Amino acid sequence: MKKLLLLILFTACNNYLVTNENTLLESGYEKFGCDELGYEDIKSDGSNPYYKVYSQVEVIDDNLEMLIARCYDNNTCHHEYVHNNEVICQKFFIHGEKEALTKRWVDHTILAFNIKRVL
After folding, report:
1. DSSP secondary structure string, 25-59?
2. DSSP structure class, residue 16
3. Chain segment 47-80, per-residue pLDDT in tens
4. Read out DSSP for 62-100?
5. What percent of the chain has pLDDT over 70?
6. Is the C-alpha dihedral spanning 18, 22, 25, 30 positive or negative?
7. Dihedral sign of CA atoms 80, 21, 91, 86 in order
8. What is the pLDDT at residue 58?
9. Domain range summary for the chain, segments of one domain joined by +
10. What is the C-alpha separation between 21 and 14, in angstroms, rounded?
11. Whole-angstrom Cα distance, residue 52 to residue 27?
12. Which of 60, 92, 105, 106 is the most exposed place for a label (fewest CB within 10 A)?
């Protein structure tokens, strides 16, 4: 029943559903932290190079999607599908010649559903 409710809630607004952090934790999401640092410099797509704090992950149950929720406070969580078996907790974009770093997301908590970290 919880999985059906979660699916209905998630599909209601696609990737931008806003939900309560406590409700997600009660529905099977778990707090998640990243443990790797990487660098991306893809000039062909026109984006700025960036550092990323991330973790390689794999699915727990193949019948369910891997999902994360970025929770900016207890009542504001934005949902995302996990792509390429990677959860990116934060991106730091490099701007200008002085290489100042700018965060992609303000401080937030990551909640993960149907995900386990690759060891």
Report:
1. HHTT-EEE---EEEEE--GGGTPPPEEEEEEEEEE
2. G
3. 678 889 999 999 999 999 999 999 998 888 999 9
4. TTS--EEEEEEETTEEEEEE-BTTEEEEEEEEEETTTTE
5. 77
6. positive
7. negative
8. 96
9. 2-117
10. 17
11. 28
12. 106
Question: In this structure, what token pair is assigned to residue 60?
Answer: 């727990």
Structure tokens at 25: 């934790």
pLDDT digits (tens, 9 = 90+) for 9-18: 454 445 556 5
Q: What percent of the chain has pLDDT over 90?
A: 52
What pTM, to 2 d.p., does this model score? Answer: 0.75
CA distance 28 to 1: 12
Q: Who's near 113: CB < 8 A, 6+ residues apart?
A: 6, 24, 27, 28, 29, 30, 64, 65, 66, 67, 68, 69
**Euclidean distance between the first and the last CA atom of the chain, given in angstroms as a whole number:** 31
* Tokens linked to 4: 């059906």
* Structure token pair of residue 28: 């099977």
